[in-house]
Amino acid sequence: MWLAANEPAQTAGIESYLYTYGPLVLMFVVLYFLLIRPQQKRQKTRSMMLGNLKKGDKVVTIGGLHGTILELSDDTVILRVNDVTKLTFERSAVNAVSSGEDKK
């Protein structure tokens, strides 16, 4: 008999925890799918793009400079921006790649 009388109080305690922590858990799940997961996908595609750079790729730097990759190392990229000018950038400064060789 003691268990039957005490049972409603236990379910009320569980419901109060659900009402207290449920919105917090729901908010974390929503933030994960709206903010954290898309950012991880963008970071993964950017690191793949930087890892797949090769000579002859036409790239745009973060500053908006267009050029063609002449040389690559682990950390740096040497770009040809016109027939005479060669500039050295960090590999992480590359913003976008349009793969293809020069058309002459």
TrEMBL record:
User: According to its UniProt record, where is this protein mainly located?
Assistant: membrane
Q: What are the subcellular locations of this protein? A: Cell membrane
Record keywords = Cell membrane, Membrane, Protein transport, Translocation, Transmembrane, Transmembrane helix, Transport
Q: Which Pfam families match?
A: YajC
Residue stretches spanning the membrane: 16-36
Annotated membrane topology: Single-pass membrane protein
In the UniProt record, the signal sequence range is none
By sequence similarity, the record places it as follows: Belongs to the YajC family.
Which PANTHER family does the protein's record reference?
A: SEC TRANSLOCON ACCESSORY COMPLEX SUBUNIT YAJC (PTHR33909:SF1)
Give the protein's recorded name.
Preprotein translocase subunit YajC
Species whose genome carries this gene: Paenibacillus konkukensis
